[in-house]
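Human: Here is a favour to ask of a fellow structure person. Comparing notes only helps if you start from a blank page. Give me a protein, with the fold worked out from its sequence. Please set it down just below, with no commentary around it:

Assistant:
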Amino acid sequence: MKRDTMDYRYSPSKECIEQNKKDKISYNKLKREASEMDFNSLTRTLIDDLDERQFTRKYINFRYNIFKLVCDAIGDYPTCIREYNLKDPFYNLQNWTTDDLIYLGKKFKNKFIIPSSIGGGFGSYEGYYYYTDKEDTEKFKKFSKGKVKETGAEFYYYSKNITDPLEVSKNTGMDYIRFSFYNLPDYQVKVYQYVNNTKTVKTYGYKYDRWEIVE
């Protein structure tokens, strides 16, 4: 017997439909509050709050990661397509710009800031550094060019005070930093900060045009 192709089409359960209705309410609340917050100043606050004692090496690799969850399990229905991103819809790593990395470099004046992408980001090359032949030169006009020893490929980096030619290899020791975020109601953002193997979780609240740690 020929199986009806309709059997393979996505058909959300009542639970899923109701969950998406609730998600919409939560999303709209986050959207309304986001319009009243200055996320640019949050990025700078996160950089200001970094503990310089955690960074002992000459090189800092800023890892740009984006992971999006598009499906979830609700009740007995195995797959429910969630229509609204409630994790980080309004403040996420896409808010970070090359100017923010320059600000990071000014904090760590005697270090090299080397951004890399995993899953997208400032550039299109996934999983490695931002290579000069794959990026918008205008976007990285304030950056210098380094070279990978094994391949000779050139990549972008920033350093405020160091002008020496930069060459790295797969064995070059670096400090690693990355962030992940949860946008919360009531003008708050939960921040997951990873420096090497150390995870720090803080919640920042926005009040009177300033970001402060509330938890």
